[in-house]
Write a structure and sequence with these properties.
The protein is mainly β. The longest helix is centred in the N-terminal third of the chain and has 13 residues. 31% of the residues are buried. Its cofactor is Fe(2+).
Length: 283
């Protein structure tokens, strides 16, 4: 999903593809201490271990760069990136639930959602969605994309769909709607595993509703790109009971609903802000 100043997605990235953490005050340079006479040459210090955000970037770069656009990454690569994401915490990206992103209150409708841009290239993008309580990311798709989502903190309701298989599609006109299979419809709480959706499976179309302050770290493979046909499309549920002439089209345990393309809901605002956590070093 991309970000816009208001309305819907896409969003202009802030200050290029990489953002450094900055403070408000001036940076003071420390003078380099000279070794004392007779002390000998200073010993070389070991390089510090890469932080969690840097490890995520390096895993994504090694797994996704060079892959054909729209191709599903290999299972071993997916597990590698998922494993790194599973270990990332809100502290690793400098977020806490008491930040202003998560304290927006509106008397009516839903509050604004903030997107923090970490990195973007042709192969993948990394960003964080900050949802106040009652914040909603409407039902939208990810065409030709594999998406990793890690809930850093909070509790949210997730509803997701995949398009119905050809053999499940009824041979009747659906008046502009398209049949979709409900993949998930329930509550997700932080400390759960990273979720992965695919171009044709895993809940490619989803909607998030925050039950309290929530932060979601997303990796999109590849990113949205209108020129390449990866346009973010929104949907409304046309019907929760798929039937024609009073007869259920698809009996059985699986749930199906009719989705119809729509504009972003009125009052939905997704705003970009500067990421202030540990920077990504793209060597």
């Amino acid at each position: 999903m991309q970000v816009e100043a208001s309305g819907g997605l896409p969003v202009p990235e802030l200050e290029g593809s990489r953002l450094a953490s900055r403070g408000d005050g001036a940076i003071r340079r420390r003078r380099q201490r000279r070794p004392r006479r007779g002390a000998g040459a200073p010993q070389a210090m070991a390089a510090p271990a890469a932080g969690a955000v840097q490890r995520l970037f390096e895993a994504c770069r090694e797994v996704f760069n060079g892959a054909a656009p729209g191709a599903v990454p290999p299972p071993a690569g997916i597990e590698r990136v998922k494993s790194v994401l599973d270990g990332i915490t809100a502290e690793d990206v400098g977020l806490t639930p008491n930040m202003s992103y998560f304290r927006r209150v509106v008397p009516r409708g839903t509050p604004k959602i903030t997107y923090l841009h970490l990195y973007k290239c042709e192969a993948f993008s990394i960003g964080i969605f900050c949802l106040p309580s009652r914040g909603v990311i409407p039902l939208h798709n990810h065409p030709g994309m594999t998406v990793f989502s890690k809930l850093l903190f909070g509790t949210m309701h997730v509803k997701s769909y995949d398009w119905a298989a050809q053999q499940d599609t009824p041979d009747v006109p659906l008046q502009g709607s398209r049949l979709a299979k409900v993949k998930a419809d329930g509550i997700m709480t932080a400390l759960c595993e990273t979720s992965v959706l695919y171009p044709e499976d895993g809940g490619n179309m989803h909607c998030f509703t925050a039950q309290n302050a929530c932060a979601v770290l997303d990796v999109l493979v590849p990113p949205y790109d209108d020129g390449s046909g990866r346009h973010c499309q929104y949907y409304n549920v046309s019907s929760s009971e798929v039937s024609v002439g009073g007869s259920t089209l698809l009996p059985g345990a699986d749930r199906y609903e009719l989705l119809v393309e729509s504009e972003p809901p009125e009052g939905f605002y997704l705003v970009g802000s500067t990421y202030m956590g540990p920077r990504i070093l793209d060597h």
